[in-house]
Amino acid sequence: MKDDANRPQKRTRLAWTLSLLLLPLAAGSGAQDSLRWRGASAYPPSPSQQPASRPSVHAVPQPGAAFDPAEFETLAQQLVADGRVPGLAMAIVQNGKVVSERGYGVTDAKGTQPIDNHTVFRLASLSKAFASALTGLMVDEGKFRWDTPVVDYVPWLRLSRPGAERELTVADLLSHRVGLTRNAFDRDLEANADYSGLVSKLAYAPMTCNPGECYAYQNVAFSLIGNVLAATSGEDYGRELARMVFKPLGMKDASTGLDGIESSPRWARPHVRGGGGWVALMPKPAYYHVLPAAGVNASISDMSQWLIAQTGHRPDVLPAPLLATLHRPVISTPTELRGSEWRRERLTSAGYAIGWRVYDYAGHEVVFHGGAVQGYRGVVAMLPDRDLGVAILWNSESALPSGLLPTILDSAIGLPYHAWIEDKSQPAGLYASGQPNNGEAAVPDGSDQAQSPAAAGAPR
């Protein structure tokens, strides 16, 4: 069966742009015409002009009495106590406050150093939401617009379809609507190819649709947003991210790049299976070449602050209208409805927003992203109608900790307990399924896919 998410959508560029009338994506207020946005302010002037979305974070139903963070802490501790994973860290925030934030297990299976609140993990594709936030802040500053053509700031960019690069917008980059086959050139990136050389090869990469018309997850092409931001600000991407996001939010352990994690006072080593147990490695450098897609490092303390901001409680840094834009899906991703048991049983729709995935989870909106590179896994999810956020990071390729997420979500919305942690229906329990393409992609569609034999280490 073909992957519907990879077919060109049956709509024209004009029809897609019209659909964005529901999306306050432009640095222009008021009305939008069918091709461009018009106006002066960044968002519609009143909530009544915006589509119905999440309720105010200050007036939402709360998880019931059965919602007990201590139970989830016990489950996390059990995962490391019997050696099923070397270590993990988990944060839960509710109503803008941290209700659980702990480390479990060890940074290195060969040692005894415990994981604590400030142990740094590699975030892999959880980095994409940081790129979207930084971009949105620059849109708010009037530096460019969501519908600005990428070639305005990256004039040398070429795609294989004549003129396609002129259609590619900033929002298209961050929602994986470039038009390429999925994960284009990730295999080359995994082989430590130079990023700039891979971007040049986009001129010859197959395209399945015009920009803006279909979804296919990217790491190399996504990271063109770094070129746009650098051309706009004149500053290094990592420094701008630290200045505009990490420091204002109090993410004191956060960094970017291989040097960033290795210079951290305490960081979790990546682990793979070998010799009947877990073997610690050094982090692979390849995907640090694409910082916007996969280059952020952070502790669970940092992720608590990130969740507080993403759930609307730091409007001084991430204002509510910007969050509404980032969290609103712009294209369907139906392949995510299959895979692990919790996906099959709980999800009824899936889409990609601006650096985030958005699911209908048993009738509740969930804003989500997963990440995976060699030896690291992570997940972030928010349940807006319960004002709840969850982050789980772990330093191994086990899928078991992913079951903590649906366990927490089920409890928050009042569903009966299910042993999701023991779900063995698919080895890659957290991740969406898909089929490999013509060999150019290193991982199956679904972005957060657990690594395939073809591409150990590719971030998802």
Automatic annotation (TrEMBL):
Annotated keywords: Signal
Source species of the chain: Pseudoluteimonas lycopersici
Record's protein name: Beta-lactamase family protein
Alphabetized InterPro entries for the sequence: AmpC-like, Beta-lactam-related, Beta-lactam/transpept-like
A matching Pfam family: Beta-lactamase
Domain Beta-lactamase-related: 72-399
Region of interest called Disordered, as start-end residue ranges on this chain: 37-63, 428-460
SUPFAM superfamilies registered for this protein in UniProt: beta-lactamase/transpeptidase-like (SSF56601)
Keyword Phosphoprotein applies: no
Signal peptide: 1-31
Entry keyword Signal: yes
Cross-referenced Gene3D superfamilies: DD-peptidase/beta-lactamase superfamily
Lineage of the species this protein comes from: Bacteria, Pseudomonadati, Pseudomonadota, Gammaproteobacteria, Lysobacterales
